[in-house]
User: What shape does this take?
Amino acid sequence: MQDWKVSRALLQHLRRAGPVPGATSLSHSGGHAVCATAPPGWKIGIDLEAIRPRNVDGLAQWVCSPVEREALADLQGEARLQHFYRLWTLKEAFIKGAGLDFPADMACVGLSGSPESPLLRAPGGAWQACSYRIGSDWVASVVWQAPQDRAADAVAPQWICLPACTLPPPEPFGRWRSDSD
Assistant: This one.
């Protein structure tokens, strides 16, 4: 099934279950889709990517900060590809959740520091983010920002699969929070 059809089917399923108040973010890749929802007043973004060979150096020049490019250059093989997709999905999730410009703002958000202990680079405000490995073939990231009068500390993404979903369960691949303003 085409990606856009999968994501629309997921959104229709959610809407049949009841109204989806607040913010919604949708992503699709390789015939699969994910949707993130949040209460009214929140900002949320999600991205899902099928891991496949890419021109990591070429794309990194385009979307990564110098620190991110250096971290990628220090990695080899599968670790390099996994870290690239973690960066890419975080960047895409921020583009959606924060209403940033694609592709112009991709280098402005992501991770700084080493791949072993990265720090979140987010737009202004207090953001949180989680990345997940889904089997060996997928990476997904979700970012969210609660309104200033609401604490988001206790929030953790929950995965709910449709009955026909054949993806393996997600494994945490990082969780971060940014400083306030």
User: Anything to note?
Assistant: The helical segments are 3-17, 56-63, 66-73, 77-98. Residues 71 and 115 are 7 Å apart (CA to CA). The chain has a mean pLDDT of 87.
